[in-house]
Specification:
The chain has 273 residues and is an alpha/beta fold. It is 56% helix and 14% strand. It folds into two domains: 164 residues, NAD(P)-binding Rossmann-like Domain (Rossmann fold); 95 residues, Orthogonal Bundle (ProC C-terminal domain-like fold).
Length: 273
């Protein structure tokens, strides 16, 4: 991957995180460049990595093998039109991390037959602990798919979906998912305080418990059901709590919430399409 020339359109938090991850993995800073209309954004980026920056999108795209669109959905149509000629001349693969913008919408601005990869990262990517799903159009070569996967792997785990519509389910699961865990830990913190703990102690215990549970789930080879069973002694405190969750239909609540997120993701795609 060291030979790739990668251009970022947008120099916000996600772009900065990907750039930092690539450099940490050994990517030369000379292979990376970024554009952004706001000088302060480019200045913050250069504190992370001494890469080439510009206010002109077409300038950083020229000669790039990979172009990463890290801009707000509202400006995507204009950005794709601005860079379409440079993307075509470079025969670059375009990776979009913008939520809700479909391949068809991107293709309308970039033209046929541009290689396009849509991806759905999540906010833990800012700590290089993200989960990203990707979908590639038919114009994307196998090598371009590999390159896209390797680039996003710089900020966490990656997986591919076979249908573009599945990205809406990914949005409902891992895209919005961090907020679900934050809400659960927030509820645990509040409940602990009501049970007599001071708020700081309750928060520390809730956060460390969440971290430890996730590590047990990700670093071992035991499935979630078995992990839960091992903590749940018959007739014990955990069993009482789990039974209370089940009686309150926790699974149904989670399913309904994720369905609401998926429905909104599809609605947003229609609005921005």
């Amino acid at each position: 991957m060291d030979e790739l020339q990668i251009a970022f359109i947008g120099a916000g938090n996600m772009a900065t995180s990907i750039i930092g991850g690539l450099i940490e993995q050994g990517m030369p800073a000379s292979n990376l460049r970024a554009s952004d209309p706001f000088p302060e954004s480019l200045q913050r980026l250069q504190q992370t990595a001494p890469i080439t920056t510009s206010a002109e999108n077409s300038e950083v795209v020229a000669g790039a093998d990979v172009v990463i669109l890290a801009v707000k959905p509202q400006v995507m149509a204009q950005v794709t039109r601005d860079i379409s000629a440079a993307v075509s001349a470079a025969n670059a693969v375009v990776i979009s991390i913008a939520a809700g913008i479909t391949i068809a919408s991107l293709q309308a601005g970039l033209g046929e037959p541009t290689a396009i990869v849509r991806c759905m990262p999540n906010t833990p990517a800012l700590l290089r602990a993200g989960a990203t799903a990707l979908y590639a159009n038919a114009s994307t070569s196998e090598q371009q798919r590999i390159s896209a996967g390797d680039i996003l792997a710089a900020v966490g785990s990656v997986c591919w979906v076979e249908q573009e519509e599945q990205l809406d389910a990914v949005t409902a699961l891992s895209g919005s998912g961090p907020a679900y865990f934050f809400l659960f830990m927030e509820a645990m913190t509040e409940a602990g305080a009501k049970l007599g703990l001071d708020e700081a102690t309750s928060r520390d215990l809730a956060l460390q418990t969440g971290l430890g549970a996730c590590r047990m789930a990700t670093e071992g080879d035991v499935d979630l059901r078995e992990l839960r069973r091992r903590v749940t002694s018959p007739g014990g405190t955990t069993e009482s709590a789990v039974q209370s969750f089940e009686k309150a239909n926790l699974r149904g609540i989670v399913a309904a919430a994720m369905q609401a997120a998926l429905d909104r993701a599809r609605e947003m795609s229609r609005e921005m399409g």
